[in-house]
Design a protein that fits this description.
101 residues; 4 helices; 35% helix
Length: 101
């Protein structure tokens, strides 16, 4: 499944998803974010049972603030519209997948 570019305009649809949601908060200038990004892309491709979205904090500061994102990369898992897991910093793919279980 394709990765969704999440904005404040489409966030309500993401939050209302019946699937578990993985949100990747990032910025283009962030080195560790560039390490996590391909892993998030792989998860989106390999696991259609999840909704995967990316949020550029420079473009969507309100969403970053809503989730108390102060450092990036930050990964957030939503289940039933609520935060189920949140992790700051680069993680291996296996740890990201474990957050979604």
């Amino acid at each position: 499944m394709a990765i969704m570019n999440v904005t404040k305009e489409n966030f309500a649809a993401v939050q209302g998803s019946e699937k578990p949601v993985l949100l990747d908060f990032y910025a283009d200038w962030c080195g560790p974010c560039r390490m996590v990004s391909p892993l998030v892309d792989e998860i989106a491709e390999e696991h259609p049972e999840y909704l995967v979205g990316k949020i550029n904090i420079d473009n969507e500061p309100e969403l970053a603030q809503q989730f108390s994102v102060f450092s990036i990369p930050t990964l957030v898992v939503l289940k039933n519209g609520e935060v189920a897991e949140q992790a700051v910093g680069a993680r291996p793919k296996a740890q990201i997948l474990a957050m979604l279980k």
